[in-house]
DNA sequence: GCAAAAGTCAACCTATAGGTTGACAATATT
DNA sequence: AATATTGTCAACCTATAGGTTGACTTTTGC
């Protein structure tokens, strides 16, 4: 995941959103992390429960969880020595919508595509 | 982007799809690459045209383009010394659908969520 | 009270990403 | 033919990711 340096182009707000998008896509680019998300989609898991399917150390999983937590994809509920991890899909929504912006290209409708291009041309001047 | 090592869990086919997903998400995790995609969504661009908005070297952009090309997001049409880059959104579709699998969580319908959980429980046994 | 269990933190290793600069190859231009 | 333009390739640098091991903290069970 790369920090954004092309500050010339974006307003601070957009820049922040861009950075967030980068973080989310990056978090999702790891197969182990995606698998963790898959497990948490069924039900909350403890850290050791999340460890079980993977041939890595507890520390490695702990790091992945921390990474997912950092981008908001996991909420941690601590009860004594047990850390219960809950999935929070909200951040995915942003990535989903970004990709959705290009859905017009692959879902075929020429009308939609034209609309897209027009709206882009307009925004061009709004800056 | 990480290589998948938990081969224990996945069939070769699934493993390959997982690897592809990782590549795509990783490609999208870079803000410059996303911006390039944005430019190409408007119209095809040459390499130097793609360079123009960014405060980096031509080589850096060339690398990004190569990276996007490698995951299939860019097609290159070479005419003499000009490399015309075209956007190919198809690979995004896969990422989009993966995320869409979790849409039920954030779009609120409890019914859908229950269906999701049931279908997952079934697949559990199908392996 | 003591040992096991659940996790984190810190230090380390290795691979790779993204950036740079400096040649180079090939096509256009004049 | 000489030069400028377009772009790649190769070598290098630095930062960081993901993995490891080892020590440590806190809670829990006996």
Short description:
Chain A is mainly alpha-helical and 127 residues long. Chain A contains seven helices and three strands. Chain A binds a DNA duplex (30 and 30 nucleotides) through residues 1-2, 30, 32, 46-48, 56-60, 62-64, 66-67, 80-83.
Describe this structure in words.
Two copies of one chain form a homodimer. The first copy, chain A, is mainly alpha-helical and 127 residues long. Chain A has one domain: Arc Repressor Mutant, subunit A (Orthogonal Bundle). Chain A has a three-stranded antiparallel sheet with strand order 1-3-2. In chain A, a hairpin with a 2-residue loop joins strand 2 and strand 3. At the A-B interface, helix 1, helix 2, helix 5, helix 6 and helix 7 of A face helix 1, helix 2, helix 5, helix 6 and helix 7 of B. Chain A binds a DNA duplex (30 and 30 nucleotides) through helix 4.
List the SSEs and their pairings.
Two copies of one chain form a homodimer.
Chain A (H helix, E strand, L loop, with lengths): L11 H17 L2 H12 L2 E2 H5 L6 H13 L3 E6 L2 E6 L2 H11 L2 H4 L3 H17 L1
Antiparallel strand pairs in A: 1-3, 2-3
Chain A binds a DNA duplex (30 and 30 nucleotides) through helix 4.
* CATH fold title of chain A: Arc Repressor Mutant, subunit A
Order of helices and strands of chain A: HHEHHEEHHH
- Interface with most residues: A-B, 45 and 45 residues
First-to-last CA distance of chain A: 26 Å
**Can you identify the CATH class of chain A?**
Mainly Alpha
**Spatial ordering of strands, largest sheet of chain A:** 1-3-2
Oligomer: homodimer
Low-confidence stretches of chain A: none
Briefly note the structural class of the backbone of chain A. Answer: mainly alpha
Rounded to an integer in angstroms, the radius of gyration calculated over CA atoms of chain A is 19 Å
Relative strand content of chain A: 5-15%
How many E strands of chain A? 3
**Quick check: average pLDDT of chain A?**
86
Number of helices of chain A: 7
Structural shape of chain A: elongated
Main sheet: strands, sense, barrel of chain A: 3 strands, antiparallel
Number of domains of chain A: 1
* CATH architecture descriptor name of chain A: Orthogonal Bundle
State the share of residues found in helices of chain A, binned by percent: 55-70%
């Amino acid at each position: 995941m790369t920090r954004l340096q092309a500050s010339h182009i974006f307003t601070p707000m957009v820049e922040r959103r861009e950075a967030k998008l980068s973080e989310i896509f990056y978090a999702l680019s790891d197969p182990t992390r995606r698998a963790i998300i898959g497990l948490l989609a069924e039900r909350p898991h403890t850290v050791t429960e999340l460890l079980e399917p993977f041939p890595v150390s507890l520390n490695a999983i702990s790091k992945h969880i921390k990474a997912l937590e950092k981008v908001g994809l996991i909420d941690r509920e601590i009860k004594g020595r047990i850390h219960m991890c809950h999935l929070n899909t909200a951040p995915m929504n942003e990535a989903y919508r970004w990709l959705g912006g290009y859905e017009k290209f692959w879902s075929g409708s020429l009308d939609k595509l034209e609309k897209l291009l027009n709206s882009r041309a307009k925004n061009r001047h709004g800056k």
